Amino acid sequence: MDHLSCMTAPPNRPIYLDNHATTPVDPRVLAAMRPWWEENFANPGSVEHALGRAAEEAVEEARAHIAGLIGAEPREIVLTSGATEANNLAIKGAARFAAASGSDRRRIVTLATEHKCVLESAKALKDEGFEPVILPVDSNGLVDPDTLRAAVDDRTLLVCVMAVNNETGVIQDLAAIGAIAKAAGALFHTDAAQAAGRIPLDVAAIQADLLSLSAHKIYGPKGIGALYVRRRPRVRIAPLLSGGGQERGLRSGTLPAPLVVGFGEAARIAAGEGMLDAGRIAGQRDRFLAALAAAVPGIEINAPGAPRVAGNASLAFPGGVSAQDIMAAAPGLCVSTGSACSSAEVEPSYVLRAIGLDEARARATLRIGIGRFTSPADVDRAAAMLAQAWSRAVSGTTRAAE
């Protein structure tokens, strides 16, 4: 496959294994976007002339591809700047519409391992009279259904549970969670930024009312995302932005046609090739883990008993070394010590602490994200580089202790 081979890292270029932070733009996505930068730069809202109408048509075709990835209707897709905005719109929008409508439902139930934008959105609503409830997870990062069921009652407006965790790759049982929310008459929102293209998603099957997506997690461009808003039965949310009323009045602002087209092409490819990707990526992950385990005795996977997406490996290194030290000793490798969306402060990941890891193990954890363009040569080199970096870090720690 040409689109795979052209992305393999050359020997003098860092190997990229941080595909949960962001993915490279697929060359096919880049090709689809390019005409909308160069040949037709019209505003898709300018439907009174030919170029504007052509841009609008391209946007609507892309919207259909995005909808198709999750089993939705095109008119249920509200385009945003990314998943952070989509999550804010879902949570704050649902809460503010309910408050304005006189609803007495004030509880928002979520998990301790959610993305910061979900946790902070829920907490911010406390000042508006809402009750954020942040539930614990077990050692595998999964919510206990009985714990969730006990927290979700007739006071609950919204249940927010992410589909796939951005650090551990753990997959929640969305169908079961959706059923619990619906049984209590609550809305169900899921942040599916890390799930789209990696696992099958169907909004009807999981009974989602709101679902957030991000293009740059599925080999599309940065700066564009979407919120699915169910139409039947209709889910009502209040907009966060005031403006020209684009996106059915829910998200004002000029649509960036090139980014939308890129998102649509990425979604089209993910719908057709995502499961093939997953099989190939799982093979690369297993090859990588086998090589690393042979060279680093005692290395462990965090949340080992949970289902996870194929490309994720949250690895705790032994020997009393920190992930920062390992990364410093392997400058030719791009991995992560935790969530790339958190602050730059060097502190243990709140997600890893929430699954019960002590501070030392959390600090010794690296997140590996294998993706569509990772080659066998990449994982072989990466395993060797990490093993050497760990060995040097252990030696440095031993010398420092003497």
Summarize the structure.
By secondary structure, this protein is α/β, with parallel strands linked by helices.
Structure description:
The protein is α/β, with parallel strands linked by helices and 402 residues long. It folds into 2 domains: 2-25 and 274-394, Aspartate Aminotransferase, domain 1; 27-268, Aspartate Aminotransferase, domain 2 (3-Layer(aba) Sandwich), CATH 3.40.640.10. The chain is built from 12 helices and 12 strands. A 7-stranded mixed sheet has the order 2-8-7-6-5-3-4, with helices on both faces. A 3-stranded antiparallel sheet has the order 9-10-12. Helix 7 (174-183) links the parallel strand 5 (156-160) and strand 6 (187-191). Residues 1-7 have low confidence and may be disordered.
Query: From the 3D coordinates, which CATH architecture of the largest domain would you assign?
Result: 3-Layer(aba) Sandwich
Mean pLDDT, all residues: 94
Q: Unreliable stretches, pLDDT < 50, 5 or more residues? A: 1-7
User: Treating each run of at least 4 consecutive H or I residues as one helix, how many helices?
Assistant: 12
What structural category characterises the helix and strand content?
Answer: alpha/beta
Corresponding CATH superfamily of the largest domain: Type I PLP-dependent aspartate aminotransferase-like (Major domain)
Reported for the largest beta sheet, the result is: 7 strands, mixed
What is the number of strand segments?
Answer: 12
If you compute it from the alpha carbons, what radius of gyration comes out, rounded to the nearest whole angstrom? Answer: 22 Å
